[in-house]
Amino acid sequence: MSGRDAKKIVIVRKKKGHAHAHHGGSWKVAYADFVTAMMAFFMVMWILGMDEQTKKAIESYFSNPIGQENGYSTGNSPIASGNSPGAVKSPPLRLIMRSAQQERFERAEAKLLSRLNSPQGLGGIGARVEIVVNENGLRVELIEGENGDAFFPFGSPVMKEPARKALAVIAEELRLLSNPVVIEGHTDAAPFGARGGYSNWELSAERANAARRVMEGAGLDPQRIKEVRGLADRELRRPEHPLDPTNRRISIFLPFVLPPEPPTSVPDAAGAS
Questions:
Q1: Distance from the first to the final alpha carbon of the chain
Q2: Most buried among 21, 42, 89, 166, using CB within 10 Å?
Q3: Exposure string (b/e) for 244-262, b if CB count within 10 Å is 16 or more?
Q4: Helices (H), ranges, the chain
Q5: What is the pTM of this model?
Q6: All structural domains of the chain
Q7: pLDDT for 220-253, tens place per residue?
Q8: In the β-sheet with 129-133, what is the strand arrangement from edge to edge?
């Protein structure tokens, strides 16, 4: 038989299809969406169980995470540390809460400076009010000028009208915050001997209490006042010049309110050699 007459043999190969080929991977997407939704649900439920201050701190972080991260020396997001609800009292949360309170302090500082130095404010007296946000909290100080009697007469706890106006403005702004308040009275190192037994200790304490009464009258919640201190000349503003009039001042301090530090691990005494 010649090659021309030979029949061509055709081989057909059939591939068997998989029974579930028509489903594709869509079930994986649906399952992933379900797991994500459940995770978000439990996250929301966990946050709802926190106290109000913690919730505000977390809200502040997610509102401006880049701005929050710029304040940390490590450069890492504080949310990234810790992966369980038990980490709520951890140092990263302290950083979040501190940052949120610092933002509120800085806003209060800007508003106070604007009000005190405005044409409708206190004029030159406003320049005698110093406002500082530091690592401990917010401090507002009414500092006597070179003449030494802008806020109180010499040796007297009777407050002058400019001091009343300044403290009223300060109280109106600070009452919008929730931090506790400490009021301090300071004198210079000049000995006080007008009356027997009456010293700079009594004078500084009476001036601090006079400031407290004015601020409470201006709307500051008395329950927020944690302490009233008369420090005499023990914390001079200018220790190199103990008689300088600027050492005489009223100081209002609002500390940061943070959760306690986590306990450090202590080696078991029984296991020590």
A1: 103
A2: 166
A3: bbbbbbbbbbbebebbeee
A4: 26-48, 52-63, 65-69, 91-117, 161-174, 200-217
A5: 0.66
A6: 28-94 (no CATH), 98-255 (3.30.1330.60)
A7: 999 999 999 999 999 999 999 999 999 999 999 9
A8: 129-133, 137-143, 249-255, 181-186, 225-230
